[in-house]
Amino acid sequence: MDKLADNKICGEAECSHVLSMATALDDFIAPDCRFINIKKGQMVYVYSKLVPEEGAGVFWSGSVYGERYVDQMGIIGYFPATVVKETHKFTEVTVKIPTTGMDFYCV
Fold first, then answer.
1. How far apart are CA 39 and CA 66, in angstroms?
2. For residue 32, which phi and psi values (nearest 5 degrees)?
């Protein structure tokens, strides 16, 4: 799979802590297994934010939680930053780290 970006912003070096919470402004249908489906109104936990290359879209990684689509709960994937509105930031301290092929690996 192609890399979506060369760098990402996280709350710490492992990217395991939630950066922020967001609410979905619109539906997003995942085009491949690197992405997650999001339904309008769902709460999204944001784990990292890709640093966009020139001319590329802005993608964040996160997980959706909600009463519907329970089978997706806990699955982390990418989505366009434009389909969500950040509602709460958990940290202002971030680190910029390089992405690897594993950041975009899926089967």
1. 9
2. -160, 180
Q: Residue 96 in 3-state DSSP?
A: strand
| 100, part of any domain | yes
Domain containing residue 43: CATH number: 2.30.30.40
What string of H, E and C letters represents the secondary structure of 11-65? CCCCCCCCCEEEEECCCECCCCCCECCECCCCEEEEEEEEECCCCCCCEEEEEEE
- Interatomic CA distance for residues 88 and 20, integer angstroms: 5
Residue 71 domain-assigned (yes or no): yes
pLDDT digit string (tens) for 8-54? Answer: 999 998 888 999 999 999 999 999 999 999 999 999 999 999 998 87
**How much is the pTM?**
0.87
